């Protein structure tokens, strides 16, 4: 709802909000931003015995559950014990009663669901799940070049907004994230970070203004809402070796002048905190 209210008021929704505005779809005006739908929860009951349900969908023990929708495809799994458990997969436009499980006929969808789930959720210490210890898988990119793409935007918001549908006012290539904002008041560094080995990585981020780090679709570090300039925030991720999509937003406050600080570092087991080397950034 945050995104809808923001757009109705003439603003872009905060990047930190989970959803996208549905106003373009409701009004037929503007371009609808793409989105996925993800839900996870635990419930001790079973699914209902409604006669309208397919027989195979009645009385299923729920337990730990997940649901992910990607386009017209929905994956659901019940009584989850680990990240390896299989999904039941349906095309909900062609099969709204979810009678035809595509998992066997379309095996690539099973791998897609299992990877996508881990690439869009962040473990919550107050709501432990049986898949919290799973490592986030890398993406398969055949060709990648050195450096990141740096996009500049001029925005009116006092927060870091969603930029999916915004047109950049400038675009360049850089070796690594830097603090310079030459044009506009928001820059986004996009590309991949090359993780050398499977492991638990701690990321460190600080800025003199506002920043937001996202890896895959995971909000890793939020230095927008209620952030004190200069404070260093950290986050821990379990990552598989390989390339992981990264976006680092850096927002210049209206009352700041010139170059503002931006520092991104990492550490892992057996290796102390260090600035992420330029060789780790690709696009």
Automatic annotation (TrEMBL):
Domain spans labelled PA14: 143-280
Pfam (any one): PA14
Protein name: PA14 domain-containing protein
Species assigned in the record: Pedobacter psychrophilus
């Amino acid at each position: 709802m945050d995104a809808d209210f923001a757009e109705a008021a003439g603003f872009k929704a905060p990047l930190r909000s989970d959803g996208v505005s549905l106003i373009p779809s409701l009004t037929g005006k503007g371009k609808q931003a793409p989105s996925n739908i993800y839900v996870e929860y635990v419930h001790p009951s079973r699914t209902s015995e409604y006669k309208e349900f397919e027989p195979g969908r009645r009385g299923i023990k729920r337990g730990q559950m997940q649901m992910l929708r990607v386009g017209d495809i929905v994956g659901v799994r019940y009584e989850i014990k680990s990240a390896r458990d299989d999904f039941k997969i349906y095309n909900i436009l062609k099969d709204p009663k979810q009678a035809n499980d595509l998992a066997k006929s379309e095996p690539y969808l099973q791998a897609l669901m299992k990877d996508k789930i881990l690439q869009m959720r962040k473990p919550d210490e107050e709501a432990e799940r049986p898949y919290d210890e799973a490592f986030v898988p890398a993406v398969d990119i055949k060709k990648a070049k050195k450096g990141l793409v740096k996009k500049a935007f001029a925005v009116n918001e006092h927060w870091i907004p969603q930029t999916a549908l915004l047109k950049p006012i400038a675009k360049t290539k850089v070796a690594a994230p830097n603090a310079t904002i030459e044009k506009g008041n928001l820059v986004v560094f996009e590309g991949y970070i090359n993780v050398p080995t499977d492991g638990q990585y701690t990321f460190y981020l600080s800025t003199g203004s506002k920043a937001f780090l996202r890896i895959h679709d995971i909000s890793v570090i939020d230095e927008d809402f209620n952030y004190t300039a200069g404070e260093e925030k950290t986050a821990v991720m379990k990552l598989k070796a390989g390339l992981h999509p990264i976006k680092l937003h850096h927002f210049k406050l209206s009352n700041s002048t010139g170059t503002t600080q931006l520092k991104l570092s990492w550490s892992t087991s057996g290796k102390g905190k260090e600035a992420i080397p330029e060789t780790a950034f690709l696009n």
